[in-house]
Structure formats: structure tokens, C-alpha cells
Amino acid sequence: xxxxxxxxxxxxxxxxxxxxxxxxxxxxxxxxxxxxxxxxxxxxxxxxxxxxxxxxxxxxxxxxxxxxxxxxxxxxxxxxxxxxxxxxxxxxxxxxxxxxxxxxxxxxxxxxxxxxxxxxxxxxxxxxxxxxxxxxxxxxxxxxxxxxxxxxxxxxxxxxxxxxxxxxxxxxxxxxxxxxxxxxx
Length: 185
Prior knowledge:
- With 185 residues, this protein is mainly β.
- 13% of the residues lie in helices and 53% in strands.
- The longest helix has 19 residues, at 3-21.
- The chain starts with a helix and ends with a strand.
């Protein structure tokens, strides 16, 4: 399969996963009582950290097998799988050192709500990923990888989120990734 064919296939898989998540409806909220009407954010009132802004951009630094790169990508917050366990797939493309590295991550992270309070989030988890490595001199390779991650997020007044994440390779994944991100719309 050609490089462009692999990129197309990986992108299609991510879009299909994202599309199935948006077909689910959230239960309607009950009307607020007089005691519940405060200036506290809605996410804190309900006791869960929901967020209405699912798509964002990301960029950072990647180190893998003597290759140092800048990477750029997009992510989609697709909600909670269980209480405090979030699913956030993302696609990142790294450029530099005469190699293109494209990674599709399927991140599952636990939100450590007991250690921080709104508007901050602290999370840790892991990711199953598809990694396409395509050197300029030929010989592309695709690996199924596994990585761990830890990060923090800040929710701004407009409900957008800024994030910083440290990712480390466990199996067939970049050794180190430092990523900054911002959730847009």
C-alpha cells in the first residue's frame, strides 16, 4: 500500500470513530432550583467535567529512534467511557530529519479530579496507536504502538481548553512527545 493510501485509510478510521460518538445524545438537564443558581460553572454544578467544545489543534516536539521533529495535529474529545475516563483520539504528523512520521492515537485517560479543581484538569492514561514512518530515502514502515501519557488542561471562560501533555513510548511508539494543544470548536 502506498504512503498516501495509508494516510487516507488512517484518516478514514478516525473520522468513522468520531462520527459514531456524535450520534449519541446526552440526557436532558433538569431545571435548576433557586439554590443551584450560582456563578459556579455548569460542569461543577452537575459534578462532572463535561465540555461542549470537542475539536482542537496540537503541536509539539517528537523524539524517536534518533529522529527529532516538530509535530502538528488535531484531536477530538469524544466524551467519557466511564466516570472520569475520557476518550480523545488524535492525529499527529511529524516533520524533520528527512522523515515523515504520522501517528493516529486512540487516547484513553483517567481524570484525577481528586487532586485538582475546576478550571484545572490533571490526567494520565495510555494510547494504542498506528505509526507510519516514511523516510525521504524510501522504505516506509507501519507499526502498531503503545504509549503512556500524563497531562494537564485548563478550561478558559469561553469553555475552550488549553493543554500540555507528556507522552512516552512503551512499544513501537515515539520515545518522547511533548505536546501543547488548544480546543477550538
